[in-house]
TrEMBL record:
This is MFS transporter. It holds the Pfam family MFS_1. GO terms for cellular component: plasma membrane. It comes from the Bacteria. Keywords: Cell membrane, Membrane, Transmembrane, Transmembrane helix, Transport. It is a multi-pass membrane protein. The keyword Hydrolase does not apply. One of its GO terms (molecular function) is transmembrane transporter activity. It comes from Alkalicoccobacillus porphyridii.
Length: 377
């Protein structure tokens, strides 16, 4: 199992933590260098989430046409090129375009590794394999923190280093993932309306999760600097702690097996939403507890969405994950854009409270008639 899971963890870390979420980590420095307002910063983050959704739309077609290895290579190359573009950005528009390119990789990587799990892992290992590969985001966050501290005032060097690591991970995956990893599915006319109808409740849940979580990813570190006047070290430690905690999210596969999809989703969403509220309460305990709680629950939640998708579509795992993460990305794109406007119109604390309440809406998503195929451990 680990032969395929380890390079998967690395690629997920590169495409998510480096190419997408690191923007929030370096936002104070990037904004200072390029004179970005909160709304402009929110629009850039929104574009990265948007490109993620664009890639998700194409992922199933590309996997079927080119095979798993080629799509993994597409994901790695987009991360390398996007990160290099960010490093050399001299203004808003170049940064916007580079963020779009960088965001594509995450949209391709999640569905293709779900396909890799189905193709190369035993059935009893698939939930664990999927959720462990999903923790790549956490490992990427852990690595990005020390890099941010090492190059505190030189964020461009950090992105150059990210690009170099992404290239190494691309080569690693190229050597490990079999070239014959093409989907065995016959080309067929997919009944999209039927699929969307079947997955409508999962898609609604994914959208709400994306909308709520985007505010934390984009603005948490800026909030710590503006509202609490945290030092660079303190705010980066907050980010790294979030990554370390997220590794616990790799246990989501076992959690789902014991509690089922519905209980796992509701408990995790409640705790993830609570993290947005905790950060607004002054005090080291509440602030860092927020980091730990969000780190664990976000990784666990995305793992739940992956497993949920593959349970609804056991014969089309890449399509199921693509649909779920597409709505997750739409929610994150919309949330990042709205979030910057909310901050400028009101304040950071009120923004977190608003998005906390949005997250709670997911608790009302029904689970009836979902035809979820439960798998016993």
């Amino acid at each position: 199992m680990w032969k395929f899971v380890m390079p998967g963890i690395a690629m997920i870390g590169v495409t998510y933590a480096f190419a997408r979420f690191s923007f929030g980590l370096f936002l104070p420095q990037i904004s200072s260098t390029l004179n970005l307002t909160e709304s402009l910063a929110g629009s850039i983050s929104s574009v990265a989430f948007l490109s993620y959704t664009v890639a998700l739309i194409t992922s199933s077609f590309l996997i079927q046409k080119w095979g798993s290895l080629r799509v993994i290579q597409f994901a790695g190359m987009s991360a390398v090129l996007g990160l290099l573009g960010i490093a050399f950005s001299n203004g808003y528009y170049m940064l916007l375009f580079s963020s779009f390119v960088a965001g594509l990789g995450s949209g391709w990587s999640s569905p293709v590794y779900a396909q890799v799990a189905i193709t190369h892992l035993k059935e009893l290992d698939r939930d664990r394999g999927n959720t462990w590969m999903n923790t790549g985001t956490s490992f990427g966050l852990i690595l990005s923190g020390p890099i941010a501290l090492l190059f505190t005032e030189h964020w461009r060097l950090s992105y150059l280093l990210f690009a170099a690591i992404a290239f190494v991970v691309l080569v690693w995956n190229t050597k490990v993932i079999p070239k014959e990893g093409k989907s065995s599915s016959k080309r067929e006319n997919i009944q999209w309306f039927s699929l969307l109808k079947r997955a409508k409740l999962m898609l609604l849940a994914s959208f709400i999760v994306g909308l709520s979580s985007s505010f934390f990813w984009t603005f948490s570190r800026s909030f710590l600097a503006v509202e609490y006047q945290m030092s660079n070290f303190e705010s980066v430690f907050f980010w790294v702690l979030m990554g370390v905690s997220g590794i616990i999210g790799g246990l989501a596969g076992g959690f789902i097996s014991k509690g089922g999809i519905e209980l796992s989703f509701r408990v995790t969403l409640l705790l993830m939403s609570t993290a947005l509220l905790l950060i607004t309460i002054p005090g080291a305990v509440t602030i860092y507890s927020s980091s730990v709680l969000f780190g664990i629950t976000y990784i666990c939640m995305t793992g739940i969405l992956i497993v949920w998708s593959t349970r609804i579509f056991p014969d089309r795992p890449s399509i199921g994950v693509s649909l779920s993460f597409f709505l997750l990305g739409i929610g994150q794109s919309l949330g990042s854009s709205i979030g910057g406007t909310v901050i400028e119109a009101t304040s950071y604390p009120l923004g977190f409270i608003v998005f906390f309440l949005i997250g709670l809406l997911g608790m009302f998503v029904p689970f009836r008639n979902q035809n979820i195929k439960e798998v016993s451990a």
